[in-house]
Amino acid sequence: MDILSAALLGLIQGLTEFLPVSSSGHLVLAQSLIPGFTQPGVLFDVVLHFGTTFAVLYYFAKKILALDRKYLILLAIGTIPAGLIGYFFQSQLEAMFGNVSWVAIELIITGILNLIIDKLPSRKAVISIKNSFLIGVAQAVAIIPGISRSGATIFTGVSLGISKREAAEFSFLLSVPAILGANLLQIMTHGFDNGIAVNSYMVGLIVSFIVGLASISLVFKFLEEGKFKVFGIYSILLGALVLII
């Protein structure tokens, strides 16, 4: 893999991992609709995910260092649903990645959720054990390609009365164990690949990290300004276009 391809994949990963537009959905569409596009090997994919994970850890460093035992328990509870679904239904979920029409429909659903988020009031309910579990269920549903993890979890949090900023923060922090767990399962199932130069790994890692940081900031900006509809319109139009062609 050349440097330019590594940078492009890092850019796509950094953008779609956190923006509520479904990274898995875009990967399926790219593989199906772009001639010559192939999914990167397991190790390179893991490196890209490490880049976006580092972005979360860096962006929320102060909050993470100040987390108390209760919040850590809430994150653990929120991680359980996706962990169980991912482990026990891995083969069924992987089969969904071959159905472009299904992904397009899920993208439209993601877009509708994003439109609704703008309409929901930002209240101040606490993140309880029940709320963390329900947000975790939303994260589990988002394993389906086309459903955005950040979009589904933020939508669920705000619907439960949590403030938009707090819901987004919990969503991003919840992504860390989810991403690491998913990559561990991927490694255990498929093993590592070889043949990619070290400099390509580094470029992919750095680009996904930098773009990931920018994407996190953009999510908060659009939430606060009531512009999540931008992501909603984009996802709906993309899904509709794929169904048409």
TrEMBL record:
<keyword id="KW-0133">Cell shape</keyword>
<feature type="transmembrane region" description="Helical">
    <location>
        <begin position="226"/>
        <end position="244"/>
    </location>
</feature>
<comment type="function">
    <text>Catalyzes the dephosphorylation of undecaprenyl diphosphate (UPP). Confers resistance to bacitracin.</text>
</comment>
<dbReference type="Pfam" id="PF02673">
    <property type="entry name" value="BacA"/>
</dbReference>
<keyword id="KW-1003">Cell membrane</keyword>
<keyword id="KW-0961">Cell wall biogenesis/degradation</keyword>
<keyword id="KW-0046">Antibiotic resistance</keyword>
<feature type="transmembrane region" description="Helical">
    <location>
        <begin position="167"/>
        <end position="185"/>
    </location>
</feature>
<keyword id="KW-0472">Membrane</keyword>
<feature type="transmembrane region" description="Helical">
    <location>
        <begin position="72"/>
        <end position="89"/>
    </location>
</feature>
<dbReference type="GO" id="GO:0046677">
    <property type="term" value="P:response to antibiotic"/>
</dbReference>
<keyword id="KW-0812">Transmembrane</keyword>
<feature type="transmembrane region" description="Helical">
    <location>
        <begin position="129"/>
        <end position="147"/>
    </location>
</feature>
<dbReference type="GO" id="GO:0005886">
    <property type="term" value="C:plasma membrane"/>
</dbReference>
<feature type="transmembrane region" description="Helical">
    <location>
        <begin position="95"/>
        <end position="117"/>
    </location>
</feature>
<protein>
    <recommendedName>
        <fullName>Undecaprenyl-diphosphatase</fullName>
        <ecNumber>3.6.1.27</ecNumber>
    </recommendedName>
</protein>
<dbReference type="GO" id="GO:0008360">
    <property type="term" value="P:regulation of cell shape"/>
</dbReference>
<dbReference type="GO" id="GO:0009252">
    <property type="term" value="P:peptidoglycan biosynthetic process"/>
</dbReference>
<keyword id="KW-0573">Peptidoglycan synthesis</keyword>
<dbReference type="GO" id="GO:0071555">
    <property type="term" value="P:cell wall organization"/>
</dbReference>
<feature type="transmembrane region" description="Helical">
    <location>
        <begin position="197"/>
        <end position="220"/>
    </location>
</feature>
<dbReference type="InterPro" id="IPR003824">
    <property type="entry name" value="UppP"/>
</dbReference>
<keyword id="KW-0378">Hydrolase</keyword>
<keyword id="KW-1133">Transmembrane helix</keyword>
<comment type="similarity">
    <text>Belongs to the UppP family.</text>
</comment>
<dbReference type="GO" id="GO:0050380">
    <property type="term" value="F:undecaprenyl-diphosphatase activity"/>
</dbReference>
<feature type="transmembrane region" description="Helical">
    <location>
        <begin position="40"/>
        <end position="60"/>
    </location>
</feature>
